[in-house]
Amino acid sequence: MTTEAIGIIHSPFKEKFGVPRQAGLAPHATGEIELFKKFSGQDIVKGLEDFERIWVIFHFHLTPESEYKARMVRPPRLGGNNKMGVFATRSPFRPNSLGLSCFKLGDISHRLGQTFIQISGLDVVEGTPVLDIRPYLPEVDSHPSSRAGWTEGLEQRLDLPVIFSNIANSSLNDLPEKDRLKILIKEYLCLDPRPSYRKDQQVYANRISDFDIKWQILENQIMVLDIQHI
Predict the structure, then answer these.
(1) Domain 7-61+97-141's class?
(2) 1/5: higher pLDDT
């Protein structure tokens, strides 16, 4: 069996570390799917604009296949200590490195012979290969009363307060899209993107869009120390 990427995702998250672990947790994380010319055109996306959300099947291209060594993984939401069967998790370490996310659909445009699909609520890294796109159907895809296994009772997000230092605020004030960037940084950091086994006060750095963000968790709040344009 062979598969072929139909396009790639352009995302504000430029590295694996700290990418939201679930689609929709950062609704202001916007990007677009760039369909390759072979799969572009108005015919292939006809009718898609009438849907609010889409399913996207993609390849975890930054997860080496050699890292899939066991049938059990350590879900971050369990603190990184307890194991679950890989098929009972959404871990990227899977037999075929396939991912599935539900994104909110934006505008669809055609430029220079290629089709671009705007999406938001991203949980994928820049350059992620797209394998398929399907419409989200609320009447068959949503089952809110279903059991959620080991995830029931776990907090979905920490909602830690995010504070900006004077240096970070000064950097933001010089940017034309400072309000949007500030919202995105808050959505991203309040989830505590540290590895599950790290609960320290180390200074971390992440790249969001074209900015390097330095931050630290102190006394149950996140302090954005500095923001540098790349």
Answers:
(1) mainly beta
(2) 5
For residue 148, give the DSSP letter: -
Indicate the pTM of the whole model: 0.85
DSSP string, 38-94: GG-STTTTTTGGG-SEEEEEEE-TTS-GGG---SEE--GGGTTTS-EEGGGS--S--
Query: pLDDT per residue over 164-202, tens digit each?
Result: 999 999 988 878 788 888 998 988 888 777 776 666 788
Q: How many residues does the chain have?
A: 230
Q: How far apart are CA 77 and CA 195, in angstroms?
A: 10
Nearest to 16 by CA among 151, 123, 155: 123
**Location of structure tokens 């899939």:** 68
User: Number of C-alpha atoms within 13 angstroms, CB side, residue 117?
Assistant: 34
Tens of pLDDT, residues 88-116: 988 888 888 899 999 999 999 999 999 99
Domain 162-229 indexed as CATH 3.40.228.10: no
Q: Where are the domains of the chain?
A: 7-61+97-141, 162-229
| Model confidence band, residue 214 (pLDDT cutoffs 50, 70, 90) | very high
Can you tell me the distance from the alpha carbon of 179 to that of 130, in angstroms, rounded to the nearest whole number?
A: 30
The letter for the amino acid at 159 is D
How is residue 167 written in tokens? 């240096």
Task: Report the 3 state secondary structure along 158-180.
Answer: CCCCEEECHHHHHHHHCCCCHHH
Amino acid at 148: A
